[in-house]
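Chain A, query sequence.
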Amino acid sequence: MSHNTFGHLFRVTTWGESHGPAIGCVVDGCPPRIPVSEAEIQQYMDKRRPGQSRFTTQRREPDTVKILSGVFEDEATGQLLTTGTPISLYIENVDQRSKDYSEIKESYRPGHADYTYQTKYGIRDYKGSGRASARETATRVAAGAIARKVVPGMTVRGALVQIGPHAIERSRWDWNEVDNNPFFCPDAKMAEQWATYLDGIRKSGSSIGAVIEVIAEGVPAGLGAPIYGKLDQDIASALMSINAVKGVEIGAGFAAASLTGEANADEMRAGNDGKPVFLSNNAGGILGGIATGQEVIARFAVKPTSSILTPRRSVNRSGEEIDVSTKGRHDPCVGIRAVPIGEAMLACVLADHYLRHRAQMGG
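Chain A, predicted structure.
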């Protein structure tokens, strides 16, 4: 299986399966002398960790991360500093229940990658879906914790902005609310509505999709390249690589199709420092594939979890028509835990482009 690595200068290779002994990643290209600690990485791992509420899978994984290489203790401060060598991160799997998947060993679950994996490789790991499982994304969150520290002064935050047909009211957006509810929702009133709505979805054994918004502040102007290395191109690719993502938009995104040229244009005025001040940000902080210095804003849509209790029509490996109902522990809305994953992927892309920009332009 190829294509387990993403990035150019800041490169991340992930490994491991959902029901294997462990998962992990190797971060290559991280600059030296950056302070890093397991505790610092763990705070992001804990955001993605399963089993934290009734609205996520009840698989009990502590997702404790261990740094195996690429750091050295500073004699003066006692801090761990990156050395510039590959950083290996290790996460043990401790709560697999492979027997939950024995009944679908020969079946192709509708909406899953069972059929395509079998067709491509001639073999598939039916226990938890192997590499096709969203369990793999825990390693990306670990890598993203390091990526956040590569770009000086940059912050990356994310929020869930829609579950099913129910979207937040943007006038009520409050970043302080994101960590106060199980949905990473910036709208306290909508979070209450989602709780009732998802309870119904969960109890019926079904699932629902969601939309996540990720925003990076402090992104230096100039990151990106105008043709085949567009910043928004790489962001879209990174977000689309997340399990179950079926759509990505930057800035105004698809809504730009209904805007006039006057409404869509991000007008400018002169700032006190001589640099332009943008009066809007329909471009999502990127023009011509290059960062403007504004907030970089992206959204991605996550489909409903395919593992549901309701029987669905399918076929098995022998070509027989069957009905499939998936047992086990699954997220009624996988989009909830996709928030820290989206943050991590955006951070990794920006770290990579920061290093690429510095390599080409200096400074």
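The chain has a mean pLDDT of 92. Residues 63 and 91 are 6 Å apart (CA to CA).
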